[in-house]
Specification:
Length: about 400
């Protein structure tokens, strides 16, 4: 008889986006003439930059000729892209080409990385959180029992108004710490100094930081690190995940990368230090066969002069939406965070109503859809996420409607 991986039964069903979709479709059925504006999505809407499209077309043509055809590529990614990443993203940060691993998504990498670690590692996540970090550890049997909205073996680090969305070090020492900054869903960031405290903490305690920098290109303020390796000592304690999904509209094309420095070690049961770069390389070579050549040429084009300009333009477009949202909320005296270095605005629900009640009110009265904070974790209760990924016209209209609501 086949036995399942029992850990899957410990997964809590995440009803967030399905409940949102259900409520929206019910509303639309009852109100077919109302135009609903969706500011809940975490997907981009602007098309792929022209420089990427041109590069991908060229790569496709190469595939049609036996002289230039390419089959399996290197599991770690083509050198042309890894070199472009080192030269552009990690200039003067001392990251080598063989510390970069190209993949088909930061989501998969964040999930797959848990393969390298023993079941008995203690993990810490911020709360609210991008659900992938938690659920992949549940599947690996590392989370314990689900009691009162929390897993018993997981350390939850609240990100709330009270701590200014700056995670406090927990007294209980985690082995693996997930940090995502600029943060999804709160849209808030850490300064270099604040991140340095975490790097030092990890170093002191022989912990590892999983740093998700998927939104680094949205940073507008100085002194906010775009990579954890801008922090001294991070190469001994951190793995970094970056993605072209939000930067270049690659959510459907699929390309990302993970940095595993060769100076990063963990211990085996004999207390021997093992290089994680070697383990990840082995894992990828065994379970992954690389990202398509066409896709990698598309990603490479992001680093051309034309590509950089196009990306900047797209990001500016979204960040202008974020400004429109922030301004509208301020006029309505709704307290909001984020939106300055990220495409997410995290608002405090007015009059302390629950995040789902605010969802219903917004849908009913303004016909605007957002995401209830509670869906991202217990500390998200009382907050609500709006995203800047819509069109400018819709964003303006949504904010006009919110402004005319009775709150
Ligand atoms: C969107 C997003 C990613 C990117 O995932 P891909 O698989 O590369 O599309 C990673 N982390 C967070 C927090 C995200 O919101």
């Amino acid at each position: 008889m086949v036995k399942i991986n029992e850990n899957f039964k410990d997964l809590k069903e995440n009803y967030l986006f399905s409940t949102v979709a259900k409520k929206v479709s019910e509303f639309q059925e009852k109100n077919p003439n109302k135009k609903v504006i969706k500011l809940g999505i975490g997907d981009v809407t602007r098309p792929i930059p022209n420089s990427c499209i041109k590069a991908m077309k060229r790569a496709l043509d190469e595939m049609s000729n036996s002289k230039t055809f390419r089959g399996y590529g290197p599991e770690q990614g083509y050198e042309f892209l890894r070199k472009a990443i080192v030269d552009n993203e990690y200039k003067n940060l001392g990251i080598d080409i063989d510390e970069i691993f190209i993949s088909d998504g930061a989501k998969c990498d964040c999930g797959n990385i848990v393969d390298l670690f023993d079941k008995d590692n203690k993990i810490a996540i911020t709360d609210p959180v991008y659900p992938v970090y938690l659920d992949t550890n549940v599947m690996a049997g590392r989370a314990g029992e689900y009691i009162n909205n929390k897993y018993s073996k997981v350390i939850y680090i609240p990100l709330t108004e009270e701590n200014n969305f700056i995670p406090d070090m927990s007294k209980e020492i985690p082995d693996i710490i997930y940090l995502c900054f600029p943060n999804n869903p709160t849209g808030t960031v850490l300064t270099k100094e604040q991140l340095k405290l975490w790097v030092d903490y990890a170093k002191e305690n022989n912990s590892i930081i999983m740093f998700d920098a998927a939104y680094c290109e949205f940073i507008t303020q100085k002194d906010i690190p775009k990579s954890i390796y801008e922090i001294e000592g991070a190469k001994e304690v951190a793995i970094e995940f970056k993605s072209y999904s939000k930067t270049a509209g690659f959510t459907g094309i699929r390309c990302a990368y993970t940095v595993v420095p060769k100076t990063l070690f963990a211990w085996d049961k004999n207390k021997e230090k093992i290089q994680l770069n070697k383990l990840w390389n082995r894992r990828q070579c065994t379970k992954f066969n690389g990202v398509s050549y066409i896709t990698q040429r598309g990603a490479e084009a992001i680093y051309t002069k034309e590509g950089k300009n196009e990306i900047k333009e797209n990001i500016n477009y979204y960040m202008n939406n974020a400004r429109i949202i922030l301004k509208g909320l301020k006029e309505k005296n709704i307290v909001a965070y984020g939106g300055i270095n990220s495409p997410y605005v995290w608002l405090k629900t007015p009059n302390n109503i629950s995040s789902w009640d605010f969802f219903d009110k917004l849908l009913l009265e303004a016909n605007v859809v957002g995401t209830p904070g509670e869906g991202f974790g217990p500390s998200g209760e009382g907050y609500f996420r709006l995203t800047a990924f819509g069109s400018k016209e819709n964003t303006i209209e949504a904010m006009d409607r919110i402004k005319s609501m009775k709150i």
